[in-house]
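Worked problem 6 (solution included).
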Amino acid sequence: MSLVSASRAAKASAIALTAILALSACSTPAGNTSATSSGTFAKDSNTLIIGMVPDESAATSTWQPVADYVAKVTGKKVEVKESSNYAALIEASVAGQVDVVSFSAFTYLQAKAKGAHFTPVGATVDASTHEPGYYSTAIVPAASGIKDIAGFKGKKVCFVNENSTSGYLFPQYLLNKAGIKKGDYTPVFAGKHDVSAQKTAQGKECDAGFAQEITVTTTGPAAGLFKPEDLKIVDKAFVPGPPFAVADTLPADLKSQLKDKMSKVTIADLKTAGITTSPAFEKFFAEGYKPVDDAYYNNLRDLCKTLPDVKTCEGV
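Solution. The predicted structure is:
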């Protein structure tokens, strides 16, 4: 090969290599729309997308103060993405369409099992136990003769969704503990905690049901769906709190900032930052977040092993 030919070949190789490197730099991981040299964002480096489960009829307004605080501490625009159902939130987290997520505990485990890369940093503290968690309650109409879960046998029982921690997984545990198996009752899936509680309070579509305690005592009544005195709690189980989880793909400094600020945020922190909070939110978020990590949810993984008939536990 002549020197001229060799020179041309070298230039061609250099151009090809430059093109390959340029394409690599511009490519974006599947499911994401913006990648930087240090991390990947669901939308762009100036925006954070917060995903949340559709637990309440007013989920967006319920969590808006938290979203506002995230915007305040990060200096980024925050968009709230309320999923139409639990499965949609799992899909969004796996596809990289959200940057931070307020999962339910079980939804978090399902998302992780399907390939979502998120790390919990904090969870809501229950005011009655002062721990990061809350209660799944077994409920009946106030005038019902049912006194305990054993009385659910042969009844129409309201659940939230098969992917719900306190609206299905723990109810299965409570029913199983009472010796009640599938086939011993007629399941009714209400879709949301407040709807499950409402249908149970009405006593027509459901003779009994399950919902998280905050819905039964606070958010459901606040929305005018029923009154607290319309329902009677006959049993309950403590559930690890819904984690505020951060995408592992975000830049390291941003992940560190979110962990530092969101693992132990309080109402006082929100107010100091100038965030507006409603009385209903303050009651719900009375003790803020406490730090949690992935290992905190291992008891749910163990619980799934005791419930072989729960298909949604597969892979968790």
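Discussion: The chain has eleven helices and 13 strands.
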